[in-house]
């Protein structure tokens, strides 16, 4: 039996100096707080200086904002027609002459920073001269961040954590500087921003902060702060003991409130609640004063520890401690930290952004082709209930997906690529032409069903499965009664190809084939007649040349001409992510060898390494799989906090698809796939086999 506490805690991040490119975060899967070495966001500016900065944000999955001048609809958007089997289908791919409209639709709605929480000294910012770092530890087993440092040579200790069941940050501070009235705590609010930091602290006139209540409840003091940014309204309820607030009821021109202590130990809780978030269809009564302050520090502390102990004690685990392989310790570290990071970032009711709830990437919008990489691992690691939360969102946007398909002359539902919670498919020169996200709902739903087979779940997701497949069936083009193709226009997962000439991209063809067959299996489970397998069987085979698979039929120079041997080598995915019976393993083995020999590894992304490892695993090349997971490459960098940094990309100081992909590949290697029990020899518990 695995000693899970020992497994987890041996990878607790412990810092003895600032790690500005790898700050630590606490969260509950829907709400996340990223801190500097004071346990708060005291040195916010220092973490935002570099081009590849890792900003300190407070974010929730409901925190979406649009600028006042944001476009309200896309009716004026000029679309570009693409010849599609003899008929025009139009896409929003070109911003020429409509730059502001195009940009406005892309940037709105965006995630925003809910509020900065920090220390000051005698009303002035702390500096590197009067504040010295000590030791900071993230206790993964308990979900608590502990920080030790000195201010004017006096000790300061903080504990920081997020309540597991509400969007509340709890903080305890111990220092003689508190009772002396020198060290204060602050909360300050920015205007929302589409940028990476999700915050604009330079536009105080564009938003309002009002203290609407200030009173005592039991032993606790508290205030209520109401925030308005354009059409967005939210509330921050602050409960505290051992402190007083300097702000008076009414508007706060500086958008901040300070808390002064009369004792050396203080507790604070900051609860963030949405009141009016249009894109989320949230509309609460903003005049209703909160009935209670957040739970006490002691009560919340117990809840946090209980939650995390249970989280780690259930589901899957892999213990490498008995391995003599020199790679084992680092791989185990990456796996444990990836479990933690996806737990605090990716367990909400919406698909995550590629940077989760840490900061903004692509304005905080989801990239649905990444939903598999973000969330599928929960099913393999014995936590399908976490996957079901975001899977349910497809039911909410089904009307939008149907509308998109109909507008282009297709049947069923076409799932967007880049969107906010409304499901609106954001204009893009690339995103609107991708199709590999289309089959994901079938894959995600299938593994949720396998975890707990029951008819109710089959019926709940029947329309999602069927309408997903209906779109795919109407998208393919029949060139004869015995052959159909996945024809232009589209851009494959490897975003290096002209959408007008792409033909039978290898991964897309096999993913369509798998999805169509699986849709019929779903119907048969419900006692309904199959509808899609004939199309699946007659789809073209993946193209090959000189004994290796090509990117697509019209790309004979896949391995010899730039830019075709850069970006994602997605032809490998049809025998890694998928287990296509149309693939010749010998040809796939040669293709993997060719990729490893000629591909520009610096152009790969974080999920490419686990994807290639999955292909190597299915080929029985387990040592290659391990080497791929640990390849020394700019975008396979794993920071001390566990995040998969995409080195060379200023926009991505972290990249959760890499962490999720690592967990998928590790589960496949450890628990096997299909009827195979092969994998690496380590101690495992609670893992489920892959396809």
Can you put this structure into words, describing what you see?
The protein has 691 residues and is of the alpha+beta class. 28% of the residues lie in helices and 23% in strands. The protein is built from 19 helices and 35 strands. Strands 1, 11, 12, 13, 14, 18, 19, 20, 22, 24 and 25 form an 11-stranded antiparallel sheet that branches. It has a 5-stranded antiparallel sheet with strand order 10-9-15-23-21. Helix 5 (328-345) packs across helix 19. The relative contact order is 0.11. The mean pLDDT is 96.
What's the short version?
The chain has 19 helices and 35 strands. It is of the alpha+beta class.
Give a topology summary.
Blueprint: H1 4-9, E1 14-15, E2 24-27, E3 31-35, E4 58-60, E5 64-65, E6 80-84, E7 87-91, H2 99-107, E8 110-111, E9 116-121, E10 124-125, E11 131-139, E12 144-151, E13 154-162, E14 168-174, H3 176-179, E15 183-188, E16 191-192, E17 199-200, E18 207-217, E19 220-229, E20 232-241, E21 243-245, E22 250-251, E23 256-261, E24 265-277, E25 282-283, H4 297-313, E26 317-319, H5 328-345, E27 366-367, H6 371-375, H7 377-380, H8 384-391, H9 393-396, H10 398-407, E28 418-419, H11 440-451, H12 455-460, H13 462-475, E29 477-480, E30 483-485, H14 506-525, H15 533-538, E31 544-545, E32 548-549, H16 585-598, H17 608-618, H18 622-629, E33 637-638, E34 644-645, H19 656-671, E35 683-685
Antiparallel strand pairs: 1-11, 2-3, 3-4, 5-8, 6-7, 9-10, 9-15, 11-12, 12-13, 13-14, 14-24, 15-23, 16-17, 18-19, 18-22, 19-20, 20-24, 21-23, 24-25, 26-35, 27-28, 29-30, 31-32, 33-34
């Amino acid at each position: 039996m695995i000693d899970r506490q020992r497994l987890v805690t041996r990878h607790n991040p412990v810092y003895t100096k600032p790690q500005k490119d790898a700050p630590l975060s606490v969260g509950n899967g829907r709400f996340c707080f990223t801190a500097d070495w004071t346990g708060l966001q005291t040195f916010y500016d220092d973490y935002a200086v570099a081009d590849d900065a890792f900003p300190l944000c407070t974010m929730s999955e409901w925190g979406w904002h649009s600028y006042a001048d944001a476009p309200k609809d896309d009716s004026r958007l000029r679309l570009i027609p693409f010849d599609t089997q003899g008929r025009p289908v139009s896409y929003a791919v070109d911003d020429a002459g409509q730059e502001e409209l195009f940009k406005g639709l892309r940037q709105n709605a965006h995630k925003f920073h809910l509020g900065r929480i920090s220390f000051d000294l005698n009303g002035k910012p702390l500096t590197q001269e009067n504040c010295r770092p000590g030791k900071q530890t993230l206790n993964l087993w308990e979900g608590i961040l502990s920080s030790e440092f000195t201010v004017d040579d006096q000790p300061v200790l903080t504990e920081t954590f997020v309540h597991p069941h509400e969007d509340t940050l709890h903080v305890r501070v111990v220092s003689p500087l508190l009772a002396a009235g020198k060290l204060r705590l602050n909360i300050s609010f920015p205007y929302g921003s589409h940028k990476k930091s999700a915050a604009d602290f330079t536009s105080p006139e564009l938003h309002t902060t009002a203290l609407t209540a200030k009173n005592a409840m039991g032993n606790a003091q508290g205030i209520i702060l109401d925030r308005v940014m354009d059409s967005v309204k939210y509330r921050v309820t602050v409960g505290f003991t051992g402190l007083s607030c300097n702000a008076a009821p009414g508007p706060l021109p500086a958008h901040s409130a300070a808390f002064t202590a009369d004792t050396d130990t203080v507790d604070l809780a900051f609860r963030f609640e949405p009141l009016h978030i249009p894109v989320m269809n949230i509309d609460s009564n903003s005049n209703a004063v909160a009935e209670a302050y957040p739970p006490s520090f002691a009560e919340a502390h117990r809840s946090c520890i209980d939650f995390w102990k249970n989280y780690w004690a259930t589901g899957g685990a892999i213990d490498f401690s008995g391995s003599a392989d020199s790679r084992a310790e680092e791989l185990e570290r990456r796996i444990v930290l990836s479990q933690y990071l996806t737990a605090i970032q990716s367990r909400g009711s919406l698909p995550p952004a590629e940077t989760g709830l840490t900061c903004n990437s692509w304005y905080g919008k989801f990239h649905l082709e990444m939903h598999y990489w973000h969330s599928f691992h929960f099913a393999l690691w014995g936590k399908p209930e976490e996957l079901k939360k975001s899977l349910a969102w497809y039911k909410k946007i089904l009307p939008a997906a149907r509308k998109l398909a109909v507008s282009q002359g297709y049947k069923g539902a076409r799932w967007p690529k880049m969107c906010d919670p409304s499901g609106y498919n954001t204009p893009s020169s690339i995103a609107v032409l991708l199709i590999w996200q289309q089959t994901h709902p079938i894959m995600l739903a299938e593994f949720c069903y396998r975890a707990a087979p029951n008819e109710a779940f089959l019926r709940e997701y029947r329309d999602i499965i069927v309408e997903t497949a209906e779109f795919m069936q109407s998208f393919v083009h029949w060139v004869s009664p015995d052959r159909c193709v996945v024809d232009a226009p589209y851009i494959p997962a490897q975003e290096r190809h002209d959408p007008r000439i792409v033909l039978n991209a290898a991964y897309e063809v096999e993913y369509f084939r798998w999805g169509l067959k699986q849709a019929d299996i779903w119907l048969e489970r419900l006692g309904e007649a199959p509808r899609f397998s004939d199309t699946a069987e007659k789809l073209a085979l993946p193209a090959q040349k000189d004994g290796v698979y090509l990117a697509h039929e019209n790309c004979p120079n896949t391995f010899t001409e730039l830019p075709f041997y850069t970006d994602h080598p997605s032809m490998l995915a049809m025998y890694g992510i998928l287990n296509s019976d149309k693939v010749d393993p010998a040809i796939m083995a040669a293709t993997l060898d060719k990729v490893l020999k000629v591909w520009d590894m610096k152009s790969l992304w974080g999920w490419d390494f686990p994807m290639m490892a999955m292909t190597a695993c299915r080929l029985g090349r387990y040592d290659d799989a391990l080497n791929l997971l640990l390849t020394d490459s700019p975008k396979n960098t794993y920071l001390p906090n566990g995040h998969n940094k995409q080195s060379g990309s200023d926009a991505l100081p972290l990249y959760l698809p890499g962490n999720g992909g690592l967990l998928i590949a590790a589960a496949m290697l450890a628990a096997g796939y299909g009827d195979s029990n092969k994998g690496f020899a380590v101690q495992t518990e609670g893992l489920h086999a892959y396809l």
